[in-house]
Write a structure and sequence with these properties.
Helices cover 47% and strands 14% of the residues. By secondary structure, it is an alpha/beta fold.
Length: 161
């Protein structure tokens, strides 16, 4: 079964990096949206509702780690954020991105295209599989309302009904 075409937002101040990432994922049949600063990235995120976000940690107008945190909190972790940075190097930044800012993965520039592509595909697959496991919220609400509403004689419904 083929996965539906996924939308990726890429946010990077560096035009060359932005275009290289757009080309890597565009060749893999992803729909690409681009932004050159954190504030535009946030606006594009809200308007476009991408399936995944790739961002540079060091961004003008709104820091990348803050953008990662805002997306993570706003989506309740449903939209994976991958940090790709040339500025923050080392395990302490990786750990901070993953634990404090809600990033799903972390890569240093220059990145390995195959590893980055594989990570994104895995994150999107996990997101799709997670979504399949959960019932639609409205069906859960209807089920609970049905279970908790009194029956015609004014008594409680039995668990079998």
């Amino acid at each position: 079964m083929r996965m539906a075409r996924k939308k990726i937002l890429i946010v990077d101040y560096d035009s060359k990096s932005l275009e290289a990432l757009a080309q890597l994922f565009g060749e893999s049949d992803f729909e690409i949206i681009k932004a050159k600063d954190g504030l535009t990235g946030w606006d594009m995120y809200k308007a476009e509702r991408p399936d995944l976000v790739i961002l540079e940690a060091m961004l003008p107008r709104f820091h990348g780690f803050d953008l990662a945190r805002r997306i993570h909190q706003g989506s309740r972790g449903a939209v994976p954020v991958v940090v790709v940075t040339g500025v923050y190097r080392g395990s302490q930044y990786r750990n901070e991105a993953l634990t404090s800012f809600g990033a799903s993965d972390f890569f240093e520039k220059p990145w390995d295209g195959q590893k980055l592509l594989s990570s994104v595909q895995n994150l999107l697959r996990e997101k799709a599989e997670f979504g399949l496991d959960l019932p639609h919220p409205e069906s859960v609400i209807a089920f609970l309302q049905n279970r908790l509403s009194p029956n015609d004689d004014g008594g409680e419904r039995s668990p079998e009904n």
